[in-house]
C-alpha cells in the first residue's frame, strides 16, 4: 500500500511548505493548494486524497466556499474524505458538521500528526 495523500489548503505558503515537509517526514505525501479553487483543481485530478487540511480564511475561494463547491462538484470525495479545519480563530468558532476536527494556529505539529494518522487510518479500515 502506498503513502496516504494529504491535501494542505492554506494561503500561507510558509505554513503549507512546513506542513508538507512534516507530512513527508511522517510517511505521508503532502500536496499544496493555496486557495479553495486550487484545491478543487487538485481533487479533480487526484481523487485519492486521504485527508484535507483546510484553512478557512483565504483569498480567491475561502474554506467555506470550497466546501460548498466540493459538495456540489465532487460529492463522493466530500462524503469520503475527512477534513480537518485549520484556523487562527479556531477557538472562537463552532466546529462545522463537515469537519472531523479543528486545529488552531499556530499549529502544534505533533498534535496535528496524531489527528492526521487517526483519520487516515479510519478511511482505510
Task: Describe, in plain words, how this protein is organized in 3D.
The chain is of the alpha/beta class. It has a single domain (4-124), classed as 3-Layer(aba) Sandwich (Rossmann fold), CATH 3.40.50.2300. The protein is 45% helix and 22% strand. It is built from 5 helices and 5 strands. A 5-stranded parallel sheet has the order 2-1-3-4-5. Helix 1 (13-25) links the parallel strand 1 and strand 2. The chain is globular. The model has no long low-confidence stretch (mean pLDDT 86). It holds the Pfam family Response_reg. One of its GO terms (biological process) is phosphorelay signal transduction system. The modification 4-aspartylphosphate is found at residue 55. Residues 5-120 form the Response regulatory domain. This is Response regulator.
Write the layout of secondary structure elements.
Blueprint: E1 4-9, H1 13-25, E2 28-33, H2 36-45, E3 49-55, H3 63-73, H4 75-80, E4 83-87, E5 101-104, H5 109-124
Parallel strand pairs: 1-2, 1-3, 3-4, 4-5
Helix pairs in contact: 2-3
Keywords: Phosphoprotein
Protein name: Response regulator
Organism: Noviherbaspirillum galbum
Amino acid at each position: 500500500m502506498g503513502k496516504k495523500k494529504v491535501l494542505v489548503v492554506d494561503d500561507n505558503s510558509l505554513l503549507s511548505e512546513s506542513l508538507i515537509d512534516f507530512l513527508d517526514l511522517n510517511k505521508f505525501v503532502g500536496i499544496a493548494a493555496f486557495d479553495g479553487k486550487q484545491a478543487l483543481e487538485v481533487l479533480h485530478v487526484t481523487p485519492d486524497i486521504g485527508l484535507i487540511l483546510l484553512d478557512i480564511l483565504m483569498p480567491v475561494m475561502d474554506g467555506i466556499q470550497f466546501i460548498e463547491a466540493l459538495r456540489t462538484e465532487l460529492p463522493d470525495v466530500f462524503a469520503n474524505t475527512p477534513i480537518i479545519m485549520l484556523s487562527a480563530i479556531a477557538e472562537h468558532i463552532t466546529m462545522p458538521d463537515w469537519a472531523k476536527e479543528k486545529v488552531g494556529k499556530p499549529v502544534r505539529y505533533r498534535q496535528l500528526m496524531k489527528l492526521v494518522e487517526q483519520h487516515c487510518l479510519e478511511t482505510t479500515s
